[in-house]
């Protein structure tokens, strides 16, 4: 958490420093900003330097492909920089940094990642209706009955052992917990999909990947990768006669779920394949070392349409 928040802070800081002499800039110093700043300050001097250099490379490139960052309509057109609360991700807006020109009705967002490419970390439990939350269609009673058969014994273990028993003490955890929950999830996802195939495919990507366009900036070891999720056509726009230096094409959304199945030789991971080359990995695990009646997904994007703009910059 510390490194991720620190990276958000330095990206916002670099936008502020590089754009202040070009346009009017306002930083929204909300609670998320303060937390991110504190996380950056926890890093040692060498780490801070690497983070700042990585952010500098990234922001320079984004300024080149987003002319509206540097150019306002007039003196009243203020560029606002804000770090979003993590809770926005729960409703499908996974952007960490929001950049807004209210006068022009324009905004873009950046998702900042430190050394990982996961798109979502969602929970499953007897009380969570993933269908309603993700796709706008409530899960069936059959689904809740199926997963409650798994979670009810876990609730009893937690209450009878004062929440101290560890997952490592359970026998056949994968067969008794992970596999039946994943099977129930798979069956329910297919049921919802069959009610409205195209809209479900679109909603699945919109919730997990993002319901608003954004740039993903992934900090690696000596490299930074920038991806343009131009799903709805709001990125990479010109400002009057000023064109972006590079074009980021619109990424085609899916219309079909082609397959949902277990990853070969795995009892913890489902692979969901959609058309237009979308493919997601759903790896389930216990979020805590102690037994509790819920599980967590690490959801990663394995592939996307070839039109997804990707640029890797070497940091030297």
Describe this structure in words.
With 316 residues, the protein is an alpha+beta fold. It is built from seven helices and 13 strands. It has helices at residues 2-19, 31-42, 45-65, 130-135, 141-160, 173-195, 197-208, and strands at 25-28, 79-83, 97-101, 106-114, 118-120, 123-125, 214-219, 223-229, 257-262, 269-274, 279-285, 294-303, 309-314. The mean pLDDT is 93.
Which ranges are low-confidence, i.e. pLDDT below 50, for 5 or more consecutive residues?
Answer: none
Proportion of residues in β-strands:
15-25%
Major beta-sheet overview: 7 strands, mixed
Distance between the amino and carboxyl termini: 25 Å
Tell me the domain tally.
2
Secondary structure layout:
Layout: H1 2-19, E1 25-28, H2 31-42, H3 45-65, E2 79-83, E3 97-101, E4 106-114, E5 118-120, E6 123-125, H4 130-135, H5 141-160, H6 173-195, H7 197-208, E7 214-219, E8 223-229, E9 257-262, E10 269-274, E11 279-285, E12 294-303, E13 309-314
Parallel strand pairs: 1-2, 4-7
Antiparallel strand pairs: 2-3, 3-4, 5-12, 6-12, 7-8, 8-13, 9-10, 10-11, 11-12
Helix pairs in contact: 1-2, 1-3, 5-6, 6-7
Task: Jot down its keywords.
single chain, 316 residues, alpha+beta, 2 domains, 7-stranded mixed beta sheet, 6-stranded antiparallel beta sheet, 13 strands, globular
Provide a brief overview of the structure.
The chain is of the alpha+beta class and 316 residues long. It has 7 helices and 13 strands.
